[in-house]
Amino acid sequence: MSTPAAREPELLGQTVVVIGGSAGIGLETARRARIEGAEVILTGRSPERLTDAAAEVGASSTAAFDANDTGAIEDFFAHLEGPIDHVMATAGSPYYSSLADMDFDEARRALPEHPMLMVGVARHAAGKVRAGGTLLFMGGTGARHPSVGIGLASAMTAALPALTASLALEVAPVRVNLIAAGFVDTPLSARLLGDRLDERRSELRDALPIGRVVGPDDVAALAVHIMSNTALTGATYDIDGGQQLVVR
């Protein structure tokens, strides 16, 4: 019986920057990238959480700043030793509210958050990324079906794939891609759902075709594949365990 040939790590010798890398999907992507041979650089808001995350995954360095501050993004990449190979941005959170309960000041703040993060990273990071590397962003699938309370999230769900495609043309040969996730069992989901978290997990386990809840490691596996496959650009990749097929 022959022994299977050893597989070379997919990101061997490459460098991955994870913006929002101290927890959840960002941290799991950093972990997966390290397993696949990459050096990782983590950023996030909290220096303490970054220190813990860096020790956990063996990150080469960290930087603490608010990813929604375009000036901070510019400064980070201006002082980052390059070149690098991939940037994944997971920072930010959706704003959900019915029209009647909407805080308009909060809505105005939240609406441009994701697209401006993408634009800021594309503008200031692309010059540091090797040809064939990727800028990888997070979007969602849950707001594709109309429902009370998700109006602003629906707008972003529709806008981000179009922005991704346009940016892919503008910063080529650097690639630009978007991961659109449904519910992912992360600390962010726990914060948004509060005491409804266990109920939502149970609903999804019963309803999803895969029979389980999607975790951050599932998204991380997709992220690393997009990084390593240099034919992928300008596209949106859904990962929701079939949630869109059984919308509730």
Count of distinct strands? 7
Measured as a percent range, the helix fraction is 40-55%
Number of domains: 1
Task: Tell me the CATH architecture.
Answer: 3-Layer(aba) Sandwich
N-to-C order of helices and strands = EHEHEHEHHEHEHHHE
Task: Give a concise summary.
The protein has 248 residues and is of the alpha/beta class. The chain contains nine helices and seven strands, in the order βαβαβαβααβαβαααβ.
Protein model, in words:
This protein is α/β, with parallel strands linked by helices and 248 residues long. It has a single domain, classed as NAD(P)-binding Rossmann-like Domain (Rossmann fold). Helix content is 42%, strand content 18%. The chain has a seven-stranded parallel beta sheet, sandwiched between helices. Helix 1 packs across helix 9, helix 3 packs parallel to helix 5 and helix 5 packs parallel to helix 6. The longest helix has 20 residues. The N and C termini lie far apart (49 Å).
Core attributes:
248 residues; Rossmann fold; alpha/beta; seven-stranded parallel beta sheet
Strand-helix topology:
Elements lengths: L14 E5 L4 H12 L3 E6 L2 H11 L3 E4 L5 H9 L5 E6 L14 H7 L2 H13 L3 E12 L10 H20 L4 E7 L5 H7 L3 H11 L8 H13 L7 E4 L9
Parallel strand pairs: 1-2, 1-4, 2-3, 4-5, 5-6, 6-7
Helix pairs in contact: 1-9, 3-5, 5-6
